[in-house]
Design goal:
With 202 residues, the chain is α+β, with helices and mostly antiparallel strands. It has eight helices and five strands, in the order αααααβααββαββ.
């Protein structure tokens, strides 16, 4: 059912660790150059990864990288991760692995509409006799993060968190762990203003 997912693109980096950690370079005598949002997200993720490494050692890397912990933590990291969830996750991977900083050279998160997933979900809901739920799904997006990881976002007309959470449970049952060519980590339910109102693991 998730065959419509677009295969995640490879993550590019600039090939050199950032000098001095999170400081941005600036021309001689000039004002410091602000870091782009995706590098700010990377730095925030790296700091979180380092905390996880300090608390859990090498074992934390397996949980956070292979088990998708960093991808799920990105949803709870607030605005610092929302700048670029993929870059935040990459920073978390590097930090929890106690690796040198290696920020990406460009934004990593890529959000694309996936009408095939929307069509398949609506068809399934209708076969379940749940035409109302099918109507509430407006758009489905796949959000590429880092490596094979991706999130699924569903735009709805829901206003209440309770309704959105019930919808998320229904969508997750349909998904049924069929991730397609990548690894789906999170389901994010959005309201009409494109604001996150519910999340669920996939």
């Amino acid at each position: 059912m998730a065959a419509g997912f677009v295969t995640a693109s490879a993550c590019g980096t600039d090939g050199t660790p950032a000098s001095g950690g999170s400081r941005a370079s600036s021309p001689a005598g000039g004002r410091p150059t602000a870091l782009p949002d995706f590098k700010k997200a990377y730095e925030a993720g790296y700091e979180e990864g380092q905390k996880l490494y300090a608390a859990g050692g090498k074992g934390a890397a397996v949980r956070e990288v292979v088990g998708g912990g960093c991808a799920r933590r990105a949803l709870d990291a607030g605005a610092r991760a929302d700048r670029d969830r993929g870059a935040w996750e990459k920073g978390c991977h590097d930090g929890v692995g106690d690796a040198p900083r290696h920020p990406p050279a460009h934004p990593l998160t890529r959000r694309e509409p996936n009408p095939r997933l929307l069509k398949d979900f609506r068809a399934w809901a209708q076969t379940q006799g749940d035409t109302a739920t099918a109507r509430h799904a407006g758009h489905v997006f796949t959000v590429e993060l880092v490596g094979a990881d991706y999130d699924v976002e569903v735009a709805t007309d829901y206003r209440s968190r309770a309704e959105a959470e019930e919808f998320a449970g229904t969508f997750a049952r349909w998904w049924d762990a069929d991730d397609g060519p990548g690894v789906a980590r999170n389901l994010v339910i959005l309201n009409a203003r494109d604001q996150r109102i519910a999340t669920e693991r996939l």
